[in-house]
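Whether sequence alone determines local backbone shape is best considered at the level of individual chains. In the encoding step, the backbone of a single protein was reduced to a row of integers, each denoting a local shape. For completeness, the protein is quoted in full, as a sequence line and a line of structure tokens.
***
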Amino acid sequence: MLPVVQPVTRPLPSVLVAALYKFAPVPDPKALRDRLERACGDEVRGTLLVAFEGINGTIAGPAHSIERVLANLRSEPGFDDLELKFSDAEAMPFHRMKVRVKPEIVTLGLPDLDAAANAGTYVTPEDWNALIADPDTIVIDTRNAYEGDVGAFVGAIQPNTVAFRDFPDWFRTEGRALLDRPVPPKVAMYCTGGIRCEKATAFLKAEGVTDVFHLQGGVLRYLETVPEPESLWQGECFVFDERVAVGHGLKAGTHSLCRGCRMPVSPAGRTSPHYVEGVCCERCHRSRSDLQRDGARERDRQVRIAGQRGIAHIGPRRARD
């Protein structure tokens, strides 16, 4: 029997979400992880990845707690100019705080690639439209296939990769042929927050491509900066938290998250006879066993009960993986 918990009667505090990354040398990733864990305390949740090449992640919490974490990070050598994007959330979008040490802060499968020193040229959101409208520019989406299905820039090439680490193979087997012109085109690449396309430009330069550009701050900065009537973005932008997708002005989008496969589901997708909220969707319904479906239904029931009572279904923190 579930314990009786008094419902929350006061409004929850507003939540500030900060997406951040920076390619910069980290001499001791484990020591930086420990300092960040202490700075996050009990109020901040999300995920931060630390590697020798830099830091990447998204955190959420009260504004004063987020600023405390950012102040600590900015005090580290090389991190005074973090790439940052802020947004608001009506409720905490993460269940716990995780600070992990990884070989790469975004996995391309090339840990020796020096993105801090060899990335391409930043292009601001204000200048992005002119660049990608140039017929001598090809535009490449460095995100994964399911993200491109949610939204993309007009005319962008979709590699349809399953994971970012597939990008080098795609470029070597298919993408390089796109540059086979009498006058090699400029290459403009983008991703959600800027980190994948920045690292991808360093990879292309290592492959001998010279005119390589990437969208500063990624799609999120573009949607925040460029007025919708002037925008060349179509659809919504998938984000890796409980908001699922956002639109212009970083307003909440219309997609939800399938709890079976963790993939985005559009309003049309929710009309599928194979969509069961909290259980499965058109993508994954064939691969889910009866045991998995029963487990998912029970978890969804527990989440709904917890929501009605104003409590979190999943604890705020857990031991380090």
